[in-house]
Amino acid sequence: MSLLEVQGLNSYYGDSHILFDVGLRVEKNEVVALLGRNGAGKSTTLKSLMGVVVPRTGKVMLDGQNIAGYKSHAIARVGMQLVHEERRIFGSLNVEENLILAGHTAPKRWPIDRIWQMFPRLKERRTSRGTDLSGGEQQMLAIARALIRDPKIILLDEPFEGLAPVIVHDLMKACRELAAAGQTIVIVEQNLAAVLALAQRVYILNNGHMAHEGPAAEIKANPEILHRYLGV
Amino acid sequence: MFTWANFVSQMFNGLALGALLALISSGLTIIYGTLGVLNLAHGAMFMLGGYAGYVAFEATGSYILAVIAGTLFLLVVGVVMERVVIRHFYGRPHEDQLLLTFGLGICFVEVVRFFFSSLTKTVPPPPLMSGITSLGFMFYPTYRLAVVGIVAVALIALYIVLYRTKLGMIVRAGIEDSVMVDSLGIDVYKVFMIVFGIGAMAAGFAGIVNAPVVSLTPDVGEAILVQAFVVVVIGGVGSFPGAVLGGLIAGEIISITSMIDPGYAYVMLFAAMTLVLLLRPHGLLGTRGRE
């Protein structure tokens, strides 16, 4: 059985129908990319999985448990974490407090040293308030905050967006380390080179419908798939 | 007529009122900051604290027990109110929440009027704190001085809970972004219940501590509610330090203006609020706005 299995997911913002019968599956230790144009429903898919947007219908099986309709905190306790596109760092809390808060209810958590090892920059800034961090540092903290809960699956929403190339390089390295350590990841990202280097499998969303599924290697070999759905 | 003794005495009155407003507004501001619900029943809760204390005082004759009763009763009222009613309104528009809490406030006032009538009730200060104290250059009612000390202790306790405990850390994070707190595995609805309970408790405590200073009537919370709103706006929505600073400023403005002409107390209060809104739209110690 797959670690995550989604069937017939339908999500709405108010009256507008955003996701139409979306289905996907993610195996344990796999890195899966979710691609699509702006407004295709990528972020909404991740938010629906995490319960931030409550899907109207559909089944979301995580580790054998149907979590569709659960509140976010219950989904987090089953072992899912979403790193939001806007990072959503607590600005009034310092780096360490952000991490302590995140690990508070986790059944199993990473030792803080493992976080510092992965993001030495955060260790240097452990007493800085969230508002005083640079964009790159905030992104590191957002990822670290998810990792400290030792999630079964981590959803990354555009983790490299708006960051300097040198920071993207560092974050890519961290993501590779995670993947090598067996962390299951679903990633939404506009930076195709980066995401295709990380992912084993790719899903493409088009206007809220799942339009394509295949190995990342296939997409690299046939860029016309990307032309068709992404216009790149 | 203006005299220095009069002025200093009014400054002290302002300090006592300001401390009280700081405590009431702290509850109001953390409730709004965390839950996003503007609690228009907050003044009525302040009043309920006074009456719960009055009942306990009539039964036992003890000031301490009256304070404990007023405080605990409001903790219970707050938690029940959140669990039974407020929680169903988190996803609803602000107007609905306003109407709901406004209506609840009216119900509280009228229920108290039904059982206790509109006649004033008094809770005397404890014997140790009654009478007047000489400050060297003037005499001042002992209990009013005590109120400043009692409220300061309560504010310090609230500060410790908010800034030195894990619960406080969660509440502060919740004031910033409750959705994110929930995504990190913390049941934010339980946090909402606790915050509403603490906010109600602060109002109840203020209500009974203030009871010996004023005469207790069912309408005693009305003026306080308006003043507390101004304090929250001046201090910055969701900011506890802002509520304390705003409370002290508002207390002094009301007291000192009253010395010259009581009719202008509110005018000056709202003028100060307008000034703050013009110069610092998020309030003196507030950060970015909610939503």
Write up what this structure looks like.
The complex is a heterodimer of chains A (232) and B (291). Chain A has 232 residues and is an alpha/beta fold. Chain A has 10 helices and 10 strands. Chain A has one domain (4-230): P-loop containing nucleotide triphosphate hydrolases (Rossmann fold, 3-Layer(aba) Sandwich). Chain A has helices spanning 42-50, 72-78, 95-103, 112-118, 120-124, 135-147, 165-180, 192-198, 216-221, 224-230; strands spanning 4-13, 16-26, 31-36, 57-62, 65-66, 80-83, 153-157, 184-188, 201-206, 209-215. In chain A, strand 1 (4-13) and strand 2 form a beta hairpin. The relative contact order of chain A is 0.19. Chain B is mostly helical and 291 residues long. Chain A binds chain B through residues 50, 52, 71-73, 76-77, 81-82, 84, 88, 90-93, 97, 100-102, 104-106, 145, 149, and chain B through 166, 169-170, 172-173, 175-177, 179-189, 287.
Structure keywords:
heterodimer, A: 232 residues, Rossmann fold, 6-stranded mixed β-sheet, 4-stranded antiparallel β-sheet, 10 strands, globular, B: 291 residues, mainly alpha
